[in-house]
Amino acid sequence: MKFVLATHNPNKIREMRAILGQFGVEVVSPKELGITVDVEETGSTFAENAMLKAKAICELAKLPAIADDSGLCVDALNGGPGVYSARYGGEGLDDRGRYMLLLQTMRGQTTRAAHFTCAIACAFPNGDTITAEGQAPGTIAFAPMGEGGFGYDPVFFVPDKAKTFAQLTQEEKAEISHRGKALREFTAKLETYLKK
Ligand code: ITT
């Protein structure tokens, strides 16, 4: 069975392809199908937004669609930027602008605990759905470190590894990341679903 990845974020596509490929799940990107759709993320949770994206792309592509809605939740910011992670600081900022703004906002803050959350939603053309969620705990670094990954990775520090996500290889990140955890839960549920 072929799945379309309901995301336009090339970094998510790269990470999702690598993880899902290990489980033999065949995926295509919306670009490869010639589809572009801007789904308004009106949900108040990661899970709601992931389902909105999965259903919209499933309907357009007429294929089962897997969506990822994710973000960084910082304790000292009452869980923010959370579902607004991609829009933190406004439209004009790129990834670096957003994490530099976060570091500035966190200046002088001693409570630095944070976690990434990833909600996966899969929508099938027959109306069936599968959902999964993963979290990765860490802290907000005091300065950016590392060149790998994307988004907030250079400022997301994992104490157990003594490295930021951006200092890990893609494989090392996938082992402990919110996306890796959510996608592994998803593939287990998918296996059960396909046996029915
Ligand atoms: P799609 O909606 O098309 O999937 P998006 O980038 O807009 O792409 P989200 O709305 O889910 O996706 O926003 C997620 C944001 O959270 C993303 O842009 C990053 O800034 C951040 N993020 C999510 N996962 C991350 C990760 O593994 N490492 C670093 N930052 C991450």
TrEMBL record:
Lineage of source species: Bacteria, Bacillati, Bacillota, Clostridia, Eubacteriales
InterPro entries per the UniProt record, alphabetical: dITP/XTP_pyrophosphatase, ITPase-like_fam, RdgB/HAM1
Cited Pfam families: Ham1p_like
HAMAP family for this protein: Non_canon_purine_NTPase (MF_01405)
Organism whose genome encodes this protein: Dysosmobacter segnis
Metal-binding as UniProt keyword: yes
Entry's Gene Ontology molecular function annotations: dITP diphosphatase activity; ITP diphosphatase activity; metal ion binding; nucleotide binding; ribonucleoside triphosphate phosphatase activity; XTP diphosphatase activity
Cofactor details (free text): Binds 1 Mg(2+) ion per subunit.
Family (UniProt): Belongs to the HAM1 NTPase family.
Its job: Pyrophosphatase that catalyzes the hydrolysis of nucleoside triphosphates to their monophosphate derivatives, with a high preference for the non-canonical purine nucleotides XTP (xanthosine triphosphate), dITP (deoxyinosine triphosphate) and ITP. Seems to function as a house-cleaning enzyme that removes non-canonical purine nucleotides from the nucleotide pool, thus preventing their incorporation into DNA/RNA and avoiding chromosomal lesions.
Binding site for substrate: T7, H8, N9, P10, N11, K12, S70, F150, G151, Y152, D153, K173, H178, R179
Cofactor needs: Mg(2+)
Active site: residue positions: D69
Entry-linked PANTHER family: INOSINE TRIPHOSPHATE PYROPHOSPHATASE, INOSINE TRIPHOSPHATE PYROPHOSPHATASE/HAM1 PROTEIN
The keyword Signal is assigned to this record: no
Organism superkingdom: Bacteria
GO biological process: nucleotide metabolic process; purine nucleoside triphosphate catabolic process
Catalytic activity: dITP + H2O = dIMP + diphosphate + H(+); XTP + H2O = XMP + diphosphate + H(+); ITP + H2O = IMP + diphosphate + H(+)
One GO CC term on file: cytosol
Protein name: dITP/XTP pyrophosphatase
Subunit architecture: Homodimer.
UniProt keywords, alphabetically: Hydrolase, Magnesium, Metal-binding, Nucleotide metabolism, Nucleotide-binding
EC number(s) given by UniProt: 3.6.1.66
Binding-site positions, Mg(2+): E40, D69
